[in-house]
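During the second half of the funding period, the structural biology subgroup turned its attention to how the target accommodates small molecules. The most pressing case was protoporphyrin IX containing FE, which had performed well in the primary screen but for which no bound structure existed. We therefore specified the complex as follows and requested a full 3D prediction, including the ligand pose.
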Amino acid sequence: MAGTIDREMGLDAVDDLEQLPILGRLHEWVITVDHKRLGLMYITGGLFFFLVAGLQAATIRLQLAVPNSGIVPPQVFNRLLTMHGTAMVFLVGMPILTGLFNYLVPLMIGARDLAFPRLNAFGFWLWFFGALLLYFSYIGGDGLYGAGSAPDVGWFAYAPLTELPFSRGNSTDYWILSILLTTVGSTATAANIVSSVFCMRCEGMTLTKMPVLVWLATVVSFMILVALPPLSAAQVMLLLDRFLGAHFFDTQAGGSAVLWQHFFWIFGHPEVYILVIPAFAFASEIIPVFSRKVIFGYSVMVAASCAIGFISMSVWAHHMFSVGMTPAGNSFFAASSMLVGVPTGIKIFNWLGTMWRGKLRFKVPMLFSIAFLFQFLVAGLTGIMLAVAPFDWQLTDTYFVVAHFHYVLVGAIVFMIFAAIYYWFPKATGRMLSERLGRWHFWLFVIGFHLTFDTEHFAGMQGMPRRIYTYQPGRGLETLNFVASIGALVQGIAVLIFVINVVRSLRSGEPAGDDPWDAWTLEWSTTSPPPEYNFATLPVVRSRRPLWDLKHPDDPDWRYE
Amino acid sequence: MPVEGNPDNPIEAPAPTPWPMLMALGLTLVFAGLVTNVAVTLVGGVLFISGAVGWFGEVLPVEHREPLRVEAAPAAIVPATIGVDYLHVGELGNRAILPLEIYSYSAGIKGGIAGGIAMAGLAVLQSVVVHHSLWYTANVLAATVLANLANASTATLSSFIPEAFVVALIIHASASILVGLLYGVMLPMFPRYPAFWAAIVAPLLWTGLLWSSLSVINPVLDARIEWRWFILCQIAFGAVAGFVVNQTERVTTMQHLPFAVRTGIEAPGLGGDREGQN
Ligand code: HEM
Ligand SMILES: [Cu+2]
């Protein structure tokens, strides 16, 4: 085992394994409790499902490219849609983001590991097996004999449609069980990050000296701890309904049809912020370094993120305007949704303020971050539009909503995931990703993204319904849908270039050195990749940019803080 | 104290372990049994429990830890050779268009009062010279709000009417103070010759404005105003108010401070200490 000097026990076994190097290395990864390895495993797993769910999306867009197309039958379409949405949220967004936090937070707070390393491993494996269980549904149930029983109920699994009479077989059970498992994994990670941030910071790192990313990881972890249990509770209730004949969501027996929606969106809306706040976190580390300036308004940034965390807990029913709530309910949720715009706007201004008069370096991570800024702005604006209840009554369940949330999920979150991977890849692997391929990846992805999702806004306003497997010709939808599908193809090519870039760079990328971007946070002060123990000597910090202090002894930050 | 790792004092880390993974697999199989076969649940249960037992055995009574060999140290961090640029805020006259100094508000108010007194003096003079009455001009001014005076005869307008006097005083005083305040605020923005702008241009401008609009606003008043005296009064006001304002000391504005500082946002490097970086 690398890094081990004491092998009193199991020495022979280790030697045996080393004769089979691949198996031996695999074994090391399987039993590891190192936060960096677990982080990389989360990220790799997430990227794998990104490709799978991306293929599903491509199939969806292929089916919708022309009207009346019969590439996939309706039932298969519903399964693709469900698996795409569920996988993108739970098997791509969550693991990649928690994986990055897993990797970065201990390094950034100058610690040797997370507070509970074994719990961390347990969380990862729960997520991993839960994910496998979801996809096992394709061959489980009647799968081996029939067409597979993958869930076809949407990533929101609205009850009572998911009750036994309307959703026969086990497909819905697969959805419930696997999401239950993966959310337990996420909850474990969240608890771990909170404890580590509060208990494991290195000397001198007060709360006000933590990198913004660490702050936001803490905010997100608290949100996970608050938001995921309602989902698990609802899933257990649905399981009870389905297996034991309870009637929580069964209207005929006095249950409530709207109850599921409340439970789901009490989780579901904070969830979108759980996904997007990490994107904010990466932007807050990357933009300053590539602007050569301190983050503008550190404390405002932190305060705004906490505010977003709180307010986003009180807006869930903006997904339910068309349910027919009371006018007071509608007004409350419309107003609180718009209120979220305030701290969000503050953050956008702070990133712009950071770039203002900076010496910008347009490296690939920065390119993705700048695109993120503009796209997130648009996403926020269409979000405010949807928060106007009468507008939402018109456009809910149209492609306008699809376009809106993909602007957030892709335009903000996926873009910042790519930015983060380009930025921290050198740290994790010791090798740079190619700038040239990175630029191809970036430009194709931007173009493809806008071809797809800009047009979908207009398709929605033309009346294109959401979650529909095909549409009729002659309603002004052909061109828009065709362009959107071309865009999906372009995005696919871009992702392919990214995969090539990663594979090539892992083998023969340019060596990175410890600190390739001339950055300021602690992770760049150790080797690339960092040793198992992170820091031979635990760092001591005096300011928010410890490496700046070391590089500029004549002008350190702590004089000004 | 920083904890040092070296070959004599190896760094300890939690030992790798397969048990958490086994426990997770067990739990997953417990769940998977619901959608496949009870046997799966049973196997899962066994794995789950053995995973838990194995895991506990590793942390109780003492945690298994494993010493790690200290590998190559990271490259030392070299101090940057490039210096740090500063943008000293407000320097270089980069705010030449906005005033760096202004008069205090109180200066404007004082100027307004002084100008108002000078103007009132001239108005009384006009009243005496042209209409042989101390009160005529005051009554005409009061007629802008006292509707019953608007149609009054010249004789009435020449007599002393107490409520008209009070009204005229209020109008005149408040207008003088407000215009004085405006002077104080605007004077620093006039290019080159503030006295010329204050005493001549500004009074002519607003007299022109009144002259062109008064026939619509108040035709009766319009018929009675003597414009030459009116202009004279305005110039007197402008000159005195401008003079008084100009005499007082200026205070510096916050215009040269960065936006963030003015709005009270905290931003390292902007707090008047340093801004540019390399
Ligand atoms: C920041 C990250 C965000 C993400 C990831 C996100 C994601 C989503 C998703 C997935 C939906 C579809 C729900 C469904 O399946 O019906 C949705 C709908 C909606 N979003 Fe967002 N959103 C975000 C931000 C916002 C913001 C900032 C606002 C308002 C200020 C907003 C307002 C809405 C509204 C009102 C709907 C309901 C639309 C409808 O059901 O017709 N969202 N969003
Ligand atoms: Cu929402």
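Two results from this model are relevant to the next phase. Chain B has a mean pLDDT of 80. Residues A 269, 272, 315, 318-319 surround copper (II) ion (ligand 2) (CB under 6 Å).
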